[in-house]
């Protein structure tokens, strides 16, 4: 049971505790404790790399401007670096920076031997071109996995640096022994950050994959047949209990903030009654994403994931 | 009607003529005449490029060894170059060539200003690494669209050089005014050459996309619901009439040779009775693929598709 011990319960938010009845609690995928496990692995790998080869993995985050949400995300990543022993640098550039200056900055980081991962926090201020900036990142330092070169390798089944959120979902499936091959996986949302790379990873693992989104005519028809359901749309409680079948495994990648509270894309309180396993929001996919980012920086520093 | 004129009927193979009853003939997507249309466009583009900028598009094909099927495919591509005014070079390398020699050869072609497209005919002899060789091709000369950089741009919706067969299918849909957005498109087969890029293109165009393959547990469940069905498995007559719904649009990308005859993945003779539109084999998707390759070489020469 994920929260049977006092230590375990630390990782479950009050919101989740409040709504999950005791009989369903074993169905919750505890993203915080999985993330902790991944971070422990990374920490050991970092220590070994320092001891054996004298290399300290380094991550440079680039934040342009002062957007509060972006600042918070960058802070969370720096904290994870601290926990895992990764050297983290905060490159906070002024909102007034030009495209050329931003690219020159990225190119300098590409050349630095002590920086193994580069993370460009999005969104950028409107006058900057995020696609072009992303392209400037050395694919071998692309810890976020968004560079077309890495995305293409993902599509053809050579998964190296891949987007962290869907990789976190895959890791959670592995941890829970969920079979993917031959299962019907339904992905709701077709963004470049979640839906499309998630679909590619599931296809690479031989799931039958259906990709649904805002243009899908009868969403329920697909979700009702899903063995595995991954939802990333940003629509609060889009997925209701009557839209899933008994025994489904649900990953909720959505986040909606409303009146200081955070909601997922899944009506957790009711869907859990039919699900075999389900991630809460918060405390599910979010923490996993950051731990995978740490894993990528370690991979880059070890040179096991050359692009 | 596609074969109402003597000229039109030249493009329909005898096999197809034999089995298609007159009442169904308007349902056949005539790949040869569509390919001819695309080639005419390319030819005009090539003439304009020569006249306006003095540039003749150039394609170099690389064939390693003497595989008869590969030789035939290369020959077909050279003939298409002739028809469209593209300069074609046949680089037939000995089967004994080393990986280093092959890559050096590709790198020389990368540097040549008169060569805009490079096509490495697969499969390579066993002692050579095809993935590594493919990576050596300048993504900006990757007429086949298989380079990870181009595959990644495809996945994130920046379609430049993309695999020619699925692009031919999309063009055929456009020519026939087939709506993609909101439709349920089922792709059978998840190869890197057809299934996965096809799925990505359909997702980019807002279809609900299901990807099925050899691990799918109940194929019929998916195909029966398809508005658009693309099949590329190499399994002769995998798709029977009872597996599709009335009004489906079918693209058959499969080719099986048996006793000197060529078969598709779809039981054409029976499926056509339920289909709104369907491609035959031969004379369907195959000719389209080559015409798209010509389009890519022109795009590369014009510099409209820089990688």
TrEMBL record, chains A, B:
Pathway: One-carbon metabolism; tetrahydrofolate interconversion. Residues 29-144 form the Tetrahydrofolate dehydrogenase/cyclohydrolase catalytic domain. It catalyses: (6R)-5,10-methylene-5,6,7,8-tetrahydrofolate + NADP(+) = (6R)-5,10-methenyltetrahydrofolate + NADPH; (6R)-5,10-methenyltetrahydrofolate + H2O = (6R)-10-formyltetrahydrofolate + H(+). GO terms for biological process: L-histidine biosynthetic process; methionine biosynthetic process; purine nucleotide biosynthetic process; tetrahydrofolate interconversion. NADP(+) binds at residues 189-191, 255. Keywords: Amino-acid biosynthesis, Histidine biosynthesis, Hydrolase, Methionine biosynthesis, Multifunctional enzyme, NADP, One-carbon metabolism, Oxidoreductase, Purine biosynthesis. The keyword Lyase does not apply. One of its GO terms (molecular function) is methylenetetrahydrofolate dehydrogenase (NADP+) activity. Residues 163-302 form the Tetrahydrofolate dehydrogenase/cyclohydrolase NAD(P)-binding domain. Its EC number is 1.5.1.5, 3.5.4.9. GO terms for cellular component: cytosol. Belongs to the tetrahydrofolate dehydrogenase/cyclohydrolase family. Catalyzes the oxidation of 5,10-methylenetetrahydrofolate to 5,10-methenyltetrahydrofolate and then the hydrolysis of 5,10-methenyltetrahydrofolate to 10-formyltetrahydrofolate. Homodimer. NCBIfam families: PRK14176.1 (NF010773). This is Bifunctional protein FolD. It comes from Methanomethylovorans hollandica (strain DSM 15978 / NBRC 107637 / DMS1).
